[in-house]
Amino acid sequence: MNAHRYSQALIALAAATFILVVAANIAIDAQGVFGVSANAANRNTRYFSFNGYEKAAAVTDGLLFGSSRGNGIDPADLAEYLPASRFAAFAVEAGLITDHLPVLEYALRRQAEDARRLRAIFLLLDADLFGTTPFTNQRIGTQLAPELTGEPRLRFWWRYLTAIQFAAWRNELAARRGARVAVPAAHGRGRGG
Amino acid sequence: MSSSYQETAGTDAPSSLGERGRHDHGFAKMLFNSPEFIFLFLPAAIVLHFYLARHSIDAAILAAALASLAFYAWWSPAYALLPAGSIAANFCLANHIANTREPAARRWLFAGLAANLAVLGYYKYAGFLMSLFDARTPAAADVPLALSFTTFVQIAMLIDIHRRRAPLNFRHYALFVLFFPHLIAGPIVRWSELGAQIADRTRYRPDWNNIALGMTIFVCGLGKKLLIADPVAIHVAPVFEAAARGEAVTLVAAWVAAIGYSMQLYFDFSGYSDMAVGLGLLFNLRLPVNFAAPLRATSIIDLWRRWHVTLSRFLRDFLYVPLGGARAGIPRHYFSLFVTMLLGGLWHGAAWTFIAWGAFHGLLLAVNHAWRSMRGPARGGHRRGGLFLGWLATFVAFAVGMVFFRAADMAAAAALLKAMAGFGGAPLAPAIVLPWDLWAVRHGYVGDDFVRAWWGSTMSVAGTLRIAAAAAIALLAPDTMEITDYREGDPRSDWRRRFARAAWQPSWPWLVATGALFLATFDAMNKVSEFLYYQF
């Protein structure tokens, strides 16, 4: 093998890997940031929660900050008992106050700009996680939205475009296969029915 | 919104140290180990360079220089004015020196040196110097990227021009300083070695031999950084942070952390230097070797001939020799060594820890020279036992010095050194606060009490094994420059071992090995951290 063929083979390998990774990330959209997979199994809950807040920011006056246990609380129930008419829920895996601080700062500034104010904030944190390193921005699935970090949006998407994430791809594909099997069964049109 | 929340992008695994380009100025640094560099910037820069070279070599040189400026500006467009202005000023000054008779030329040379050092001093040392007078803790200096390196490169160039009196070509000079493979963190190149290559018009056609070699060296460097340095870093950081907070650190944890940081810094910086050499080859430019398997050194003198070779060379030629070197008697010799290393330490950063690190190595070098002069030349070569003892003493001394280099301040360094001496106190927190040993404890491979007693709550058995593996690679495995037989700027080359069977050549086995290593590094790329030497 000569240097020319060696170099060409390495370049081809790099290019092919890059293209495959980009294609896989768009097609599978494991975190749901490209809009291909609206209910991604591994979706970036920080990004999705923030997007949900952004869409309803004008009518939101309450915030729920929690760990994953916060998913068990219906924001509508909170609105019944606390002095806020609508809650935006930010419940993330191993969520600590440090995970939620960027959202709180953003929301306070946003509310102030719109001459509104937050009426209630509900915290549901895991005391046994205090003192541990927050997950935010530590993994591809825990990245904050660009609005919160000041990061260019293009760079945010570039990261999701170029990340090799076998476990997330596998989970997403398995979830899709499971959904395909489960949906017919739910409607009585499964293999048994 | 503040960008302080922007820290890391990992893939599937957490990485506490991971930091994919801090947004110091609203922009991220473009790192050699980032997908945007490897898959976008680098191919575009190379294709543009060689495409333009088919029509005009001057245009190709200009394109490479501008691409390098864009590489720098990716971090901060505003700060790109600094190297651009510095290059223009130094170019004018160099040509003026080349065309002026003595003693005026000498005066211009000193003015140029003073101006370059003044810029470096303003950005890097002003806060530190002020803190000496008002007794406040200096704020972290906002040092423009690459300033320390470009300053040294240009100082060496001015001295070289003063000696040789050869006028410069602006495009050549701009590419010499800005060339992105060495721009940010070296190797510190000399005009005498790179200027001639840039002027060589035969180098502007793609050379597949250089491309094959360059890509292989680059991938090896990527592997050092992403697969060894970064995984070690996550075990080292908690120990240094605990020491800085005044928490208890066990003797084992302190030593493992000090050795671990030695490994981290070696693989991080030598990996970066490998990548720089590999990138240079893609442009047919041969950058000098910067690391010569330094952790195998059997004396401190030997270590400094092999660690950050281009900085040692710079300090020797422009500081140690002018101070008197070895020619002016023993006291002056040791004084020159000490001052050179002290200033070498200060070059790394405006902090007492770096000064202490430099002074420590200055002392070690003086002791090593004194020992050699007392013992006289070794008759019939060194014995194996003597070489081993020399290596052990060198390695231990180097690891101890690394405590100053890594510690946040002198108090933290003192706390860790105290722990290394066995006075770090008993850990109060439960041992298994780090997740690394949970699996082994649950399966009964290691006892909780055993971990608590020896490793404390900051280091893990798993981390120790990982650091030991890194040390084994550093000491036993062939270095990139040995495998590829790359010898630029390494004329002595007496450190190399023979690896006849493992020697690199364009072949199927090497293609498979290099390709596999690249795939592994690509997988690790999204949890990359900055290179440690970017901060200097």
Keywords:
heterodimer, A: 193 residues, mainly alpha, 2 domains, three-stranded parallel β-sheet, 3 strands, elongated, disordered C terminus, B: 536 residues
Give a quick rundown of the structure.
The complex is a heterodimer of chains A (193) and B (536). Chain A is mainly α and 193 residues long.
As a percent range, the share of strand residues of chain A is 5-15%
Considering residues with a beta carbon less than 8 A from a beta carbon on another chain, report the largest interface and each chain's count.
Answer: A-B, 44 and 43 residues
Q: Total helix count of chain A?
A: 7
How many beta-strand segments of chain A?
3
* Strand order in the largest sheet of chain A: 2-1-3
Report the end-to-end length of chain A measured between terminal Cα atoms: 60 Å
Number of domains of chain A: 2
What about the largest sheet of chain A? 3 strands, parallel
Structural class label of chain A? mainly alpha
Radius of gyration of chain B: 24 Å
SS element count, helices of chain B? 21
Quaternary organization? heterodimer
Task: Label the structural class of chain B.
Answer: mainly alpha
Write the layout of secondary structure elements.
The complex is a heterodimer of chains A (193) and B (536).
Chain A: H1 3-28, H2 45-55, E1 62-66, H3 75-81, E2 87-91, H4 97-113, E3 120-124, H5 146-149, H6 153-162, H7 166-186
Chain B: H1 35-53, H2 57-73, H3 81-98, H4 104-134, H5 147-164, H6 170-178, H7 180-183, H8 191-199, H9 208-244, H10 251-282, H11 300-306, H12 309-320, H13 330-348, H14 352-375, H15 384-406, H16 410-420, H17 438-442, H18 448-454, H19 461-476, H20 480-484, H21 508-524
Helix pairs in contact in B: 1-2, 2-6, 3-4, 3-5, 3-6, 4-5, 6-8, 9-10, 9-16, 9-19, 9-21, 10-15, 10-16, 10-19, 12-13, 13-14, 14-15, 15-16
